[in-house]
Hints:
Blueprint: H1 11-14, E1 19-23, H2 25-31, E2 36-40, E3 43-52, E4 55-75, E5 78-90, H3 94-97, E6 103-106, E7 109-113, H4 115-119, H5 122-126, H6 129-132, E8 135-143, E9 146-153
Antiparallel strand pairs: 1-9, 2-3, 3-4, 4-5, 5-7, 6-7, 8-9
Amino acid sequence: MGIFIEDLLHFGNLIDNEVEVSLSSEDFKKTFPNLDFEFTDGVMKIKGKKRILFLSRAFEFRGKEETNKVYNSREDDKLSDFGIYLKILSPDGLNILEKDRRFQREGEYLKFSILDVFKNSDIYQKVPKQFRDKLELTKYKIKRDGLSIFLTVVK
């Protein structure tokens, strides 16, 4: 699982091939320490607390997967961001999430940047430095044990 230095020898074999990378709720916790992420088949729940004056109230945002609805951003031919779109099932806490630059509402979808989550995972450390700026997100899948993202290397 992942892209390893041996693949540098066969760079041509990585082009147009997808590599599946699993991100667990622990990987998300490293990036978002104040939020909890739960995954069920096709649905992601984001739980947290919102403050109202001196009180705090729990919220639970729910988003449904849209497997092929992803985005990739590049600046000067280098990877600057990638992420997923979740169809909003329950907008509870959406206003709290939008305070973080990695979450943006776009119509009936939540645009969610997951590059930082990927960078905080153990798998990212195994990706050769030559490939890190050439990665592109192609699709994703929400499973019971986490979020699987599918990456490819672009020329």
